[in-house]
Amino acid sequence: QLAADYLTKYGYTALVGQPLAITARVFDFGGRQQTDSSTQTRLVAGVRGSIGAHDYEVGMMVNESKLSGMYTGGVFSVTEYNRIINDPANNWNPWAPGGVQTGALADKLKAAQYIGPSLNGKSTNTGIDAKIGGELFAMPAGAAMYAVGLQARNEHLVRDPAPKPGTGDIAGAGGAAFAIDEKRNVKAAFGELVMPITKRLEATASLRTDRYNDFGTATTYKLSGSWRATDSVLVRASHNTGFRAPSLPELYQPQVLGTTEQFNDNGPGGTGQTDLQVTGVTGGNPNLKPEKSESYALGLVLSPTRDLSVGIDYFQVTIKDIIQTPGAQDVVSRFRAGDPAYAGLVTLNGNDIDRVITVTSNLGTAKVKGVDLFTAYRMNLGPGKLDVALNGTYMIKFNQTSPSGAVSRKVGTIVEPDGTPVLGADNGGVVLRWKHVLSGTYTMGPWSGTLTQNFTNGYRAGNDLNDNPVYIGDQAIYDANISYRGIKNLTLTG
Hints:
The protein has helices at 2-9, 78-85, 103-109, 163-167, 248-252, 328-336, and strands spanning 33-51, 54-73, 76-77, 116-139, 142-161, 170-171, 180-196, 201-212, 216-230, 233-244, 256-259, 263-265, 273-276, 279-282, 291-305, 308-320, 323-324, 346-349, 352-357, 361-362, 365-381, 384-401, 407-409, 434-444, 447-456, 459-463, 469-472, 475-487, 490-493. It is elongated and about 100 Å long. It is mainly β.
């Protein structure tokens, strides 16, 4: 009768007496509550010593992280809840205030609540490494120094969901949770050589080879040099390559069907709807490729006096096959913008979004350019000394290109000019144009005090409801501390 009155009031008389499909957000059991207990253990043991003029070190490490999860309220069995409310004798009322049932039905629904384990997980990383270094051969300006080493490690990821949450029957638990038991072995060899070519010129060369049983072999290197033109001028440069294999969770986290986080579809080509949640597919991706990088740096350090040094380093980095997990908003915005790389990640029903896939993926290339600046100055001031230091980074360029060639210029913004998110907006936050740490430390006898400013440039954060740009202003956070070292073997800090 409740349904008949409601439908008749709004003119849907043809539906009176017919079965109704109801989608409900259930509040009968209160807010969702989950308690996770995490235990982390790290053990390192080793020996070090010398053989003649050569220093060696051998070590072993074990890292283990355990997780035990428990649902403690607010979630329930969909199967059991449906069985209770579909019994006509229980007179379920979908229009009850707040959707919360009362009376005898409320007592029956308690049987649908799930309180119990969610999943247990364990990540283990064990390894051993050995290295030796020392003088290799004589050069006109001094001895060439070397270091070589070997490493081996085993990574193991286990995830064991509890039976009921594992089936996906628990509402609010994020869909079915499948078991994981994956391992990987990695072996590596590396070497470094430092050569004083002249009293003012030094060169360094490094080489590393990693062998993954699931990704094959990768070899990376670094070449660098420094030239002290005068006692007060130092020039330095480097070129290096990098490699990162996907982690075990990025590869093997099960892909599950659940519900996306909220997103808006009010950009160009969208429906204008906001705060949407639809069916979503999340998880890892066994087809991921490793990230690879190449970088260059060129720097200048000036020390005009003993108490003053100023440095500037230009850097340029290219990263290929960036591994990221896109957010639903990122995927939808790129899909509506017509980016072919995202064409298969959104399913439409008419023009309405029906499903979004946000699995971990290789999301193109990033090209980065910037400048690091630093200065340090010391002076006598009254009865003590004042040390001032500045370390800052100015980002010239951070452009990320999707696999199809679409470019996001990310410096100083988390949105494109039309207000849609930049590529990778859900991974790592905003790329600031400028940020620095400025500190001053005054020392007088056993007392010292430090005042530090952490400064970040403002950035564009999106659009308001009238589609006008919204900006976050500059921010400065200050830290202060005072230390006393007047008691032997004791330091007091506030």
